[in-house]
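Propose amino acids for all 436 sites.
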């Protein structure tokens, strides 16, 4: 054995001893039996799981993942053990459209991982994808060998294999996990999840409701199910937790609640997130908590690519309030983006001639495009109209990154169920002026 070979062997041995991700090869798994791994539970549903109280380990105030859930763990010799499985999934983007994506444990995004500052966590990652993958723990302070960049920090996890990541949490805040392997493909296919580290003292940064979601974008042609992975700019689905309006959970709050919304951006552009009806402050980033004296009031916060923002507000205004990305193309769904601007063009003659060839043909856009909000235009299978959703006063004419913040005086603590539309007190709704 020459020097170089010896060095390689030593490195390999040190690697297996624990400085780097511990490789559990197929042989090893069969020797120790699969029972050595914690369960890797799976969910097929896009229904919000109510906040999951911790069943073991340190107590914390759990988060609520929009259209999602938190991953259970087991305690083993002082370690909190989680098990992620990277795999192909089907995700309902909104009723009427399902996408074939990649994700974790049956879902895109994967389940939220919740732990507590000071926890020692061991996260097993089993790869059921057709290519190698890794997991990067975005924002977490850890040993370089646990950081998950293929080639730089570890070899990729080959298909069929399981690796373990181990770290002790030295911080609290809002983070995320995603692959650092064939990233363009794996993130365009929906591989990501939220990672929340709660403060060791549950009284610190305490809120009444703590929501979280990740932003991702997809390019899925109407009538198809699989995301195109080479798209650079022209995405047609702008999602929160791989859902679009009207499929995104409403943020239901009780009047007077202190509310946190944690959001991360893994799309290829920035998203100015705007909340109506009240003001908020950025209380945390993926670098940690913002000191109270360094916060300022806002109603829109730009979340740049690769950033996380935790905004906090007092839910002091009862009502139904829009919460959305302020880029108007990001509150639209796929169908209809190729319609030319026909505002002011008299299309009656055209309609007559085309109707002879295509009975039922209908011109669009003469008065703007709002008509599309209540149009029952036949759509190709498995896609969504550009503008959709129905409110108490008619079509909401939105899609994409849009949902409703519902603040109610009579909402029970810890009740996240939909209270229905706001009953506006008499005399508080914009009204038509009688000019007769
Ligand atoms: Cu946006």
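Proposal:
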């Amino acid at each position: 054995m020459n020097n170089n070979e010896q060095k390689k062997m030593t490195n390999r041995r040190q690697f297996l001893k624990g400085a780097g991700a511990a490789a559990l090869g197929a042989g090893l798994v069969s020797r120790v039996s699969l029972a050595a791994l914690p369960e890797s539970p799976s969910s097929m549903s896009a229904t919000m799981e109510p906040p999951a109280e911790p069943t073991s380990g340190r107590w914390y105030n759990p988060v609520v993942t929009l259209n999602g859930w938190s991953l259970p763990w087991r305690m083993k010799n002082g370690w909190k053990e989680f098990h992620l499985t990277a795999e192909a999934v089907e995700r309902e983007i909104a009723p009427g459209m399902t996408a074939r994506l990649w994700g974790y444990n049956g879902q895109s995004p994967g389940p939220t991982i919740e732990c507590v500052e000071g926890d020692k966590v061991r996260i097993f990652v089993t790869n059921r994808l057709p290519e190698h993958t890794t997991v990067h723990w975005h924002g977490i302070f850890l040993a370089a060998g646990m950081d998950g960049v293929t080639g730089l920090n570890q070899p990729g996890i080959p298909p069929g294999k399981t690796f373990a990541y181990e770290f002790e949490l030295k911080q609290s805040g809002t983070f995320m996990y995603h692959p650092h392997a064939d990233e363009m493909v794996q993130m365009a296919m929906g591989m990501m999840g939220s990672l929340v580290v709660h403060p060791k003292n549950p009284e610190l940064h305490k809120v009444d409701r703590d929501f979280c979601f990740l932003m991702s974008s997809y390019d899925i042609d109407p009538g198809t199910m699989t995301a195109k992975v080479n798209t650079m700019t022209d995405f047609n689905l702008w999602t929160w937790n791989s859902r679009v309006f009207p499929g995104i959970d409403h943020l239901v709050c009780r009047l007077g609640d202190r509310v946190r919304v944690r959001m991360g951006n893994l799309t290829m552009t920035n998203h100015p997130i705007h909340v109506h009806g009240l003001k908020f402050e950025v209380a945390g980033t993926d670098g940690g908590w913002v000191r109270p004296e360094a916060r300022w009031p806002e109603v829109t916060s730009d979340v740049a690519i690769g950033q996380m923002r935790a905004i906090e507000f007092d839910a002091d205004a009862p009502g139904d309030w829009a919460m959305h990305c302020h880029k108007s193309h990001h509150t639209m769904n796929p169908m209809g983006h190729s319609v030319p601007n026909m505002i002011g063009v008299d299309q009656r003659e055209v309609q007559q001639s085309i109707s002879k060839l295509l009975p039922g043909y209908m011109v669009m856009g003469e008065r703007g495009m709002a008509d599309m909000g209540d149009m029952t235009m036949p759509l190709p299978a498995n896609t969504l109209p550009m503008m959709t959703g129905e409110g108490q006063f008619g079509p909401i004419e939105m899609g994409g990154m849009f949902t409703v913040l519902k603040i109610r005086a009579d909402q029970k603590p810890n009740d996240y169920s939909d209270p229905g539309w706001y009953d506006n007190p008499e005399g508080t709704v914009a009204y038509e002026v009688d000019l007769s």
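Residues 67 and 353 are 47 Å apart (CA to CA). The first helix runs from residue 3 to 19.
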